[in-house]
């Protein structure tokens, strides 16, 4: 419904239909003034693009059906439930010559783009540390699909973090993970502690949990999601040979005196620039619409980048299962994260 909301707000979009197979829900949508239909076949012919915001296991089938109708596709993250499915979807888009983007909307915040540029000021990247821990309400898991493969904080939340880190820092090549289901007792883990190796040799660590209450997360830091309480606390710290950066505030630590930067010399602190608050989903759909009109874009998550984020997310899940580090190319094509 957030995608519906921003589509209705955007001057670049005309929402032609919402496809909802459940009759009671479809009736409620129609009563709210939307064109609500049961199948893709009923969508008006003038439609040019589709947002696929169904449960992850359905992304392939609905994505392929949309592409077969000649529509550009923005599919919610992760791209699909397995790498095999994700590759099939990307291949279909390439053969059709149609845009395929993945809904990693955090890239669309101005501070995310500014952070990527700011990293050039802290020298060669050494490492990073992140902590995402938000306690989801118990009723969140009342939906069966949220208890099964394709769900949980790894596939639902970590996939966002991995894409963001790739957007900021670059490719990841290896991950080692410890996972736990001790707090919720579900098939999907509720907590994971991870270590990443980046292609340039930098290292990273990340703790992610939807069972632990804390003020540290992307959403709590930047107030992008109206359903999540705001803390304003940074949740990622990045270090380089010439300084450090806190995210998303972009507080920078760097040289305070001439000569070598080393531990006996205090670092100078510089507050990050303020940024206008935006709705990243609105920014994303506007960028998507602009691409359909011929614009070039280097912010939206391409299908290729979305698949790379999915592969490292699945590698993290597989590492937790096997108890050893996993490289991206080791993920079996049919592995779903369980």
TrEMBL record:
Gfo/Idh/MocA-like oxidoreductase N-terminal domain sequence ranges: 3-104
An annotated Gene Ontology molecular function: nucleotide binding
Coiled coil: none
Domain of life per record: Bacteria
Segments forming domain GFO/IDH/MocA-like oxidoreductase: 120-245
Alphabetical list of InterPro entries matching this protein: Gfo/Idh/MocA-like_OxRdtase_N, Gfo/Idh/MocA_Oxidoreductases, GFO_IDH_MocA-like_dom, NAD(P)-bd_dom_sf
Pfam families: GFO_IDH_MocA, GFO_IDH_MocA_C3
Protein name: Gfo/Idh/MocA family oxidoreductase
Species this protein is from: Ruegeria pomeroyi
């Amino acid at each position: 419904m957030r995608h519906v909301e921003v589509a209705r707000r955007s001057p670049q979009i005309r929402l032609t239909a919402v496809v909802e197979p459940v009759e009671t829900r479809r009736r409620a949508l129609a009563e709210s003034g939307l064109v609500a239909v049961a199948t893709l076949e009923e969508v008006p012919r003038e439609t040019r693009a589709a947002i696929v915001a169904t449960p992850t296991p359905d992304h392939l089938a609905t994505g392929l059906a949309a592409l077969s109708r000649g529509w550009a596709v923005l599919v919610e993250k992760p791209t699909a439930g397995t790498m095999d499915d994700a590759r099939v979807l990307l291949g279909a888009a390439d053969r059709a010559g149609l845009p395929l983007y993945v809904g990693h909307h955090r890239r669309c915040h101005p501070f995310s783009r500014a952070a990527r540029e700011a990293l050039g000021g802290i020298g060669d990247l050494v490492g990073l540390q992140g902590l995402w821990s938000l306690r989801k309400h118990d009723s969140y898991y009342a939906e069966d699909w949220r208890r099964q493969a394709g769900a949980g904080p790894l596939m639902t939340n970590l996939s966002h973090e991995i894409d963001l880190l790739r957007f900021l820092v670059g490719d990841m090549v290896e991950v080692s993970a410890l996972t736990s289901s001790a707090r919720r007792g579900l098939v999907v883990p509720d907590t994971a502690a991870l270590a990443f190796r980046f292609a340039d040799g930098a290292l990273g660590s990340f703790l992610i949990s939807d069972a632990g209450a804390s003020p540290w997360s992307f959403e709590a830091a930047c107030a992008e999601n109206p359903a999540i309480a705001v803390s304003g606390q940074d949740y990622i710290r990045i270090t380089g040979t010439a300084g450090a950066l806190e995210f998303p505030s972009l507080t920078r630590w760097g040289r305070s005196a001439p000569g070598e930067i080393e531990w006996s010399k205090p670092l100078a602190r510089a507050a990050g620039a303020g940024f206008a608050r935006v709705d990243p989903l609105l920014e994303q759909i506007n960028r998507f619409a602009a691409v359909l009109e011929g614009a070039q874009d280097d912010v939206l998550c391409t299908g290729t980048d979305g698949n790379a984020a999915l592969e490292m997310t699945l590698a993290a899940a597989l590492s937790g299962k096997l108890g050893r580090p996993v490289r991206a190319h080791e993920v079996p094509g049919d592995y779903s994260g369980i």
